[in-house]
Amino acid sequence: MADATGISAHAGGVKSQMNRQYRGIGGRFSPLLPLSDRRGSSYYDLIIKTFIIITLLATVLSFLSIFTTYLNLNHICRRVVREVELEGQVSDTVYDVFYKLKEQTGLSPEMTIEDVAYCDEQNQKIQLRDTFTVDMEYNHVFTIFRPSFAPPVQIIIPMKVRIAGMSEKYWKVPD
Fold first, then answer.
1. Does residue 39 surpass a pLDDT of 80?
2. Gyration radius of the chain's alpha carbons
3. 3-state secondary structure of 158
4. How many domains does the chain have?
5. How far apart are CA 161 and CA 78, in angstroms?
6. CB 88 within 8 A of CB 171
7. Which residues are bridge partners to 155 per DSSP?
8. Is residue 8 one of the residues assigned to a domain?
């Protein structure tokens, strides 16, 4: 009767011998390197994953500085345009607002006022409903990597904001 079944005491028979040749020291799914002690390997995985997540978060947060800079530049330009609209001229008050906003935001953009027809060239007065355009340009320096042994790796991102406005003040011009 024992000959009829042909199964060994392992209950695996020939199948057990066939699988045994493919198994390493640690079992069927053992690594290629002969590492028999795998205790603590999940800690290494957790440390590596945490390091990657922190690096990705720092990268995302550093990219947000680009958008914040652009929003600040846009805010400065809108405030200057509104001041020129209310004043009806490019006066010291406009430049005071511009310098105050530069100081508050920490940016130093270049401002130009274009496409304007002054009714009084000397005082730079803009007649009611005459349009003008304020351009602001700024080069944002984005630091990618700051090694301790070399200068930082940086990208210069040029930003430009162009906003049009219309004078809201009527000037009585002498003939």
1. no
2. 36
3. strand
4. 1
5. 9
6. yes
7. 142
8. no
